[in-house]
Amino acid sequence: MGFFATRRRSRRAVEARARAPPRASLLGVNLSPEDLLSCMCRGEGSRLEFKRRLPREERAARTLCAFANTSGGLLLVGVTDRGRVHGVHHPDDVCEKLAELTQAWLLPALRVQLQVVEVHGPRVVACRVPFSKERPHAVVFPDGNREFVVRVGASNRVADGPTLRALQLDRRSRRGLTPLEQSILEWVAKQAPGPSHPAGRATVARFAQSSNVGEARARRAFVRLETLGLLLGHGSGRARLYSTP
Question: Is 187 helix (H, G, I), strand (E, B) or coil?
Fold first, then answer.
């Protein structure tokens, strides 16, 4: 049986750990209040998401799924979108709900790490999702439909085409890349998402223009990198946006 590693030593916390679902692995994240404040200063991104309160099951499951399929991440419940501590009133219940989600909404089931951290009074639930060796994980809806989700910038996106195939093949080797492909990866990594472009601005056309490379040649390299799992893409045509896992 897993256990909740909380920063408070109350009897209720001990009882909450005893009630943990037997299939969930709830190992301590071991974050200090200062660690959380540091995370909040950085703002949301590809590996960090804030929620003032626990969202609906579907939305929470999509975030956990996207983190596991991409590069892992940290979900903080009790933090506003602007990175301010709001706190949750029943953190142990939030932990239990997240543990249930990993079993009921994701296939294969996901192993996460949970912790309740008191930040100058208010309590925040930290849910760390590791990059999963069992990927791809899918969100399974009540009607039986499945959705494979990846993290692109600070957003969750449905994996399609080459991105989904790369997840299924689990390829991420950089061996044998051409200089052009290496330069593409370096360029895409620098196209950081911003408030006006939450998914970034990395397109084939922009790279071709900035690097003085033929667009057709650049597109072939982008497609190969996406097939290898070294790039994530969403959208279609010339508007397709790319990011690094």
Answer: helix
**Structural domain includes residue 1:** no
Query: For residues 18, 24, 27 and 29, what is the CA-based torsion angle, rounded to 10 degrees?
Result: -110
| pLDDT tens column, 73-87 | 999 999 999 999 999
Q: In the chain, how many domains are there?
A: 2
Name residues whose C-beta falls within 8 Å of residue 15's C-beta, 6 or more positions apart in sequence. none
Which helix (H) or strand (E) segment holds residue 95: the answer is: helix 91-104
CB-based contact 132:112 (threshold 8 Å): no
> Which of 232, 227, 21 shows the shortest CA–CA distance to 114?
21
Q: State the pTM of this model.
A: 0.66
CA–CA distance, 152 with 90 (Å, rounded to integer) = 31
Q: Which residues contact 106 (CB under 8 A, 6 or more apart)?
A: 61, 64, 65, 68, 137, 138, 139, 140
Q: Are residues 142 and 168 in the same domain?
A: no
Kindly state the tokens that stand for 238. Answer: 């010339």
pLDDT in tens, 18-57: 333 333 333 456 889 999 999 899 889 889 999 999 999 9
Which residues span the domain enclosing 62?
11-151
Which DSSP category does 239 fall into?
G
User: Rounded to an integer, what distance in angstroms lies between the CA atom of residue 198 and that of residue 238?
Assistant: 18
